[in-house]
Design goal:
With about 230 residues, the chain is an alpha+beta fold. It has five helices and 13 strands. The chain folds into two domains: about 1-80, OB fold (Dihydrolipoamide Acetyltransferase, E2P) (Beta Barrel), CATH 2.40.50.140; about 100-225, Beta Barrel (OB fold (Dihydrolipoamide Acetyltransferase, E2P)). The model is unreliable at about 100-115 and about 220-230 (pLDDT under 50).
């Protein structure tokens, strides 16, 4: 959801993935949601026609693409059940912390570099979520990456509540976390990761990437066993 300050809905943003594994952002204005909402189903395959192509906002990009698709009143969706060329169901932009040292990352941030996705294990967390939850919430989690580098990820407002409820409803001990559209920041020479309005959290087998990454995590550890939810 694309929200203005004050939680006013402006539209819905999404990613489109084609047969070449090219990921491009797309958006539909709030005035056209009634027309296109029935077709906005995650994982559905469509042939699109009658859309506009425009440049992305360069101040904050959610993908590598400099262009984006904008649905108009004339945009047509033709659902495909058996594509001629297989199209993947997921795509991530994982970035290793070792590939982005402080100097390089600072340069990218100063040039309004786009967000990234991360995958790792939560080894510690501190949350202000209460029952019932307040309007203002915060969660800070330590994420251990596959190269043994640990970084801090922060979530604010309604996102910590969603994550807390997600964990409570799972009924199992998740080990792998995939977080999308994370905004990296350098504070005092250290790397911090902030969740954005587009951040989505997935655990374990909810993604193919998460399912195939359990091999590098220690078998004796689990998210519930290593996470403390401190009010």
């Amino acid at each position: 959801m694309n929200l203005r300050w004050g939680s006013e809905l402006m539209g819905v943003d999404m990613f489109l993935l084609d047969s070449q594994s090219t990921m491009m952002p797309a958006t539909v204005n709030v005035n056209r949601l009634a027309i296109h909402m029935p077709n906005l189903k995650v994982g559905s395959l469509y042939s699109l026609a009658g859309f506009d192509v425009t440049r992305c906002n360069q101040n904050y990009r959610l993908s590598d693409s400099s262009m984006m698709v904008r649905f108009s009143d004339s945009t047509c969706f033709d659902e495909i059940t058996e594509p001629a060329i297989p199209i993947g169901m997921e795509s991530f932009r994982f970035t290793s912390c070792l590939v982005l040292p402080t100097q390089t990352l600072s340069f990218q941030l100063s040039n309004n570099y786009h967000s990234t996705d991360i995958i790792g294990e939560i080894t510690a967390a501190k949350s202000t979520v209460t029952d019932p939850p307040h309007d203002k919430n915060r969660l800070m989690a330590t994420i251990k990456m596959d190269n043994d580098v640990s970084v801090t990820m922060s979530m604010f407002d309604s996102q910590p509540v969603k994550l807390h409820n997600q964990l409570e409803s799972m009924g199992c001990d998740p080990r792998v976390l995939v977080a999308t559209s994370i905004n990296p920041k350098i504070v005092g020479g250290h790397l911090f990761l902030n969740a954005t309005s587009g951040t989505r959290i997935y655990f374990d087998k909810e993604t193919i990437a998460g399912e195939t990454s359990t091999g590098w995590l220690p078998k004796t550890l689990g998210l519930r066993a290593t996470t403390r939810w401190n009010p």
